[in-house]
């Protein structure tokens, strides 16, 4: 297995969708963690034009092990946040862990 970074960006008003899907979203991450496949995951706080952190989130990053890029893309595609319209865009990148 190799690591892949799943980088997703939220729509402008994502807080309601996040609230609706957060438990299912986290349950999937917990499954990866229990299987020893999750390196890290978390939301990216929203910032203004000056870099000041604001309420809400602008997206999420998940770094986890999958058998292939396609498997990582398929896993990301069915994220509960997608079903709730939270994400406007998700891109999956190969990731090489060097430190940590």
From TrEMBL:
Record-given protein name: YCII-related domain-containing protein
Family statement drawn from the similarity comment of this UniProt entry: Belongs to the YciI family.
Signal peptide annotation: none
Positions of the YCII-related domain: 4-95
Pfam families for this protein: YCII (PF03795)
């Amino acid at each position: 297995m190799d690591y892949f970074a799943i980088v997703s960006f939220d729509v402008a008003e994502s807080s309601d969708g996040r609230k609706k899907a957060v438990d299912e979203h986290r349950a999937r991450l917990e499954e990866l963690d229990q299987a020893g496949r999750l390196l890290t995951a978390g939301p990216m706080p929203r910032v203004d034009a000056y870099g000041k952190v604001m309420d809400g989130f602008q997206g999420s990053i998940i770094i986890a092990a999958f058998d292939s890029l396609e498997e990582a893309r398929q896993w990301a595609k069915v994220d509960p946040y997608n079903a709730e319209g939270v994400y406007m865009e998700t891109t999956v990148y190969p990731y090489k862990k060097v430190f940590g």
